[in-house]
Design a protein that fits this description.
This protein is of the alpha/beta class. It is about 45% helix and about 10% strand.
Length: about 350
């Protein structure tokens, strides 16, 4: 959780300084991210929405990879083709994040059905916000998962806002959990700011999904303290007093720290050392990524077709001629050569 908070603090400011183009904060939701990720197995397939940085870090997608993805460098696993915060790793079973809302839901169901057909001891886990539950893909996904008996955990981060729309204007029901029964599914509601409670709920949900080959919905109740993204200004639709209340009285990072202090296994000196060490690590990888080369221009045309079709070859030739004619206009020296 300390890494998530540290990356949030530094990368959001880097975006404001124009060093990266976009960022999505996680503040207020660190506990549910780390708590749920710690309950999963490496063979489980994760489909994230975009506010699950702690899930990725726990699985092994380290802060260096986060930095190179946000700066779209040659070391980015996605070859610079995605917006910042759209991570993915085939090796870690982390399916690449995509911007369109809720598309990951039916995709995750398809993967969970494949896992079932193969007889694997694993499940799919699909994260989404309560706003995404208003999309049609949510309903299609739950219906397919239930009727096909798929081993999948639908993990809803109910943080109170769908960008600027409060939950009170999204639905009239009691949250998202009640929708599970409508599709013949089990569900769990948990305090999303209690990391240990989230961990326990996810452990039980995984046992049920894998052993019974059935879908289950977790609704983690939390609060999004940051802006929706670096393109949002949440001060236009909520009061500062509301933010401060959650920060002072229901902060998942503070709650976990106080719990560890009560157990006698953590103190303020250790906390300060950890925060300073994390800050140094983040600044190191941020500066490294910022100074790294961008991917080769040729990567614009690869990885879609087994053999590049003639029309793309013509476009590539036209681009190369254009770049050769105006080499100083495009900062080609920043790109890795083939």
């Amino acid at each position: 959780m300390g890494e998530v908070a540290g990356i949030d603090h530094i990368f959001m400011r880097a975006q404001r300084h124009g060093r990266i183009s976009f960022y999505m904060q996680n503040s207020g939701e660190e506990g549910l991210q780390v708590g749920s990720a710690a309950a999963l197995k490496d063979q489980d397939h994760i489909f994230a929405q975009y506010r699950e940085l702690g899930v990725y870090l726990w699985r092994g997608f380290d802060m260096r990879q986060v930095a190179h993805q946000c700066f779209s460098t040659e070391k980015d696993l996605g070859k610079g083709r995605q917006m910042p915060m759209h991570f993915g790793s085939h090796k870690l079973n982390l399916h690449t994040i995509s911007s369109p809302l809720a598309t990951q839901l039916p995709q995750a169901v398809g993967v969970s059905y494949a896992l079932k057909r193969r007889g694997e001891d694993s499940c799919a886990v699909c994260y989404f916000g309560e706003g995404a539950a208003s999309e049609g893909d949510f309903h299609a996904a739950l219906n397919f998962a239930s009727t096909l008996d798929c081993p999948i955990i639908f993990f809803c981060r109910n943080n109170g806002f769908a960008i600027s729309t409060p939950a009170s204007e999204q639905y009239r029901g009691d949250g998202i959990l009640g929708r599970a029964s409508g599709y013949g599914m089990q569900g769990i509601r948990v305090d999303g700011n209690d990391m240990l409670a989230v961990h326990e709920a996810t452990v039980e949900a995984r046992k049920y999904a894998v052993n019974e080959s059935r879908p289950i919905l977790i609704e983690a109740m939390t609060y999004r303290r940051g802006h929706h993204s670096s393109s949002d200004d949440s001060s236009t639709y909520r009061e500062e007093d509301e933010l401060q209340l959650w920060k002072d009285h229901n902060n998942p990072v503070d709650r976990m720290r106080e719990h560890l202090q009560d157990l006698g296994v953590w103190d303020s000196e250790q906390e300060s050392t950890m925060r300073n060490d994390i800050k140094k690590q983040i600044m190191k990888v941020l500066n490294e990524a910022e100074s790294s080369k961008k991917p080769p221009i040729a990567d614009l045309f690869t990885d879609v077709f087994e053999e590049i079709p003639a029309r793309l070859l013509r476009q590539q030739e036209e681009l190369n001629k254009h770049l050769a004619k105006y080499p100083n206009e495009y900062g080609l020296e920043k790109h890795q050569s083939l």
